[in-house]
Write a structure and sequence with these properties.
This protein has helices spanning about 1-5, 10-35, 40, 50-70, 85-105. By secondary structure, the chain is mainly α. It has a domain at about 1-40. The longest helix has 26 residues, at about 10-35. The N and C termini lie far apart (about 85 Å).
Length: about 110
């Protein structure tokens, strides 16, 4: 009895954690020996769809709705800006801000 009272709370928490770990491992071992339960066998894995597949399905659905609504095409693809154009715009923005700061100081 004196031994239990001399154990610190940290040690006691560690003992409890180890005991829980042992119980979980024993349960896993028991499951491995007896085999999986019918409930575990019945649960199918979730199917994951790639982003490309989702885009294809989305495009097909949009095309079907466009046909129903009477328009010839679905919305055009969004255009992207080239790296050179973005850099040109950024440089122009920096120049505008530099000009603004210079005017503010004067």
């Amino acid at each position: 009895m004196k031994e239990i009272l001399s154990i610190s709370s940290i040690q006691l928490k560690r003992i409890v954690a180890l005991k829980e770990k042992i119980e979980k491992l024993q349960a896993k071992l028991q499951a491995a020996v007896t085999g999986p339960s019918p409930a575990e066998k019945a649960a199918p894995k979730k199917r994951r769809m790639s982003a490309a597949a989702r885009r294809k399905i989305s495009a097909a659905a949009k095309a079907r709705w466009a046909k129903v609504k009477g328009t010839a095409k679905a919305a055009p693809k969004k255009r992207t800006m080239s790296l050179a154009a973005r850099r040109k715009i950024a440089a122009a923005a920096r120049a505008r801000w530099a000009k603004f700061r210079a005017a503010k100081k004067a």
